[in-house]
Amino acid sequence: MRTQVAIIGAGPAGLLLGALLHKYGVDHVILERQTPDYVLGRIRAGVLEQVAVDLLDEAGVGARMHREGLPHDGFSLAFDGGHHRIDLHGLTGKRVMVYGQTELTRDLMDARRAAGLQTVYSAENVSLSGFDGERPTVHYRHDGQDHEIQADFIAGCDGFHGAARASVPPSAIQNYEKVYPFGWLGVLADVPPVHHELIYANHPRGFALCSMRSKTRVRYYVQCSLDDHVEDWSDERFFAELKRRLPEADAARLVEGPSIEKSIAPLRSFVAEPMRFGRLFLAGDAAHIVPPTGAKGLNLAASDVGLLGRALAEHYRGSDAGIDTYSQRALSRVWKAERFSWWFTSLMHRFPETGEFGRKMQQAELDYLVKSEAAMRSMAENYVGLSLDT
Ligand code: FAS
Ligand code: PHB
Q: What's the CATH architecture for 2-71+96-177+268-348?
């Protein structure tokens, strides 16, 4: 098989890149290791920046998001028993869209199927070759047969554990990493949200987050030990711990219900530099990971492929300026999101190793933050997302 761009991975990055390339008239194929249902079964992100909303609209897949998504003008910080609202719209003129990654992925899959675009699911043993030369090739096995795809370019959108970054010679790549000493235990439940906006809580027992997927479905998280296992946490134990970490009024109002999904995610900050190796480009979690505190992971994946899609389209119109600057432009935005995610994670979580002094630093920063319009504006403009070319 021959194509212009071979995309590895049908998560948000790969699917959105495919949708953009289709709009730009660039021929491509997506190879995905799992089945569509497996991809849709992963419960992940919930908050979209305006940049991501605009890219989904540009790709022509934003209709259901605008119908069912929840535009949010702010969120609350809860600490010392009280609520402090960060007025995103008042401080920046922008808002965020609460719309689950699962729904966004479903919309992209449906649009792809309707357009008759080629996606190979259950592709096994995907490997890459020749991307440091003129003839990149992707090899894979499907239905018991070995296959090859010759492409002009390969887009590695296959996440943190994918084959693309692993195919780059170690001498050609620089990794930067920080692993956090805790995880997030997340629960999905069909109950009404405790508050109409998100609540991020800093509590001596640990961090908690009250998010949502709709007005009838919540996504709640508590910071947990890396030694914890999901089976250690009954629904009763989860909700009791969540309520301990919230202000009393929220705890009293919180509606409990049976979990329909429960999982523990480790937290890490990771960046691989550069994000281009000859005719191979990395995008999304294949190139970087952020702790989910700042709701940046999915949004960085979207902005990467927004830059990459336009750059590849420009190449076929005769200019390589976009592909030659992709890595530098993407990394400029990635590192600012890494910084914000690290800062917000450091501010809101319990770090036993930093002791009482560390906790006092957090309390002082939170006290300053909610009393300083300048500090809140800085937080707000990072949360709603910086412009694509920043
Ligand atoms: P993805 O990992 O989503 O997709 C990569 C795809 O490539 C997968 O479908 C995988 O099956 C496929 N693949 C892998 N190896 C392959 C191979 N060799 N061949 C073919 N296909 C291959 N972000 C937030 O903003 N908020 C959150 O709350 C949040 N929670 C998260 C929880 C977890 C457990 C994880 C892992 C991430 C979370 N994230 C969150 C981040 C997440 O949303 C990612 O940023 C987002 O999925 C990135 O999308 P992709 O880059 O497409 O990577
Ligand atoms: C979510 O809804 O899953 C979510 C929202 C905001 C975050 C992290 C996760 O910062």
A: 3-Layer(bba) Sandwich (3.50)
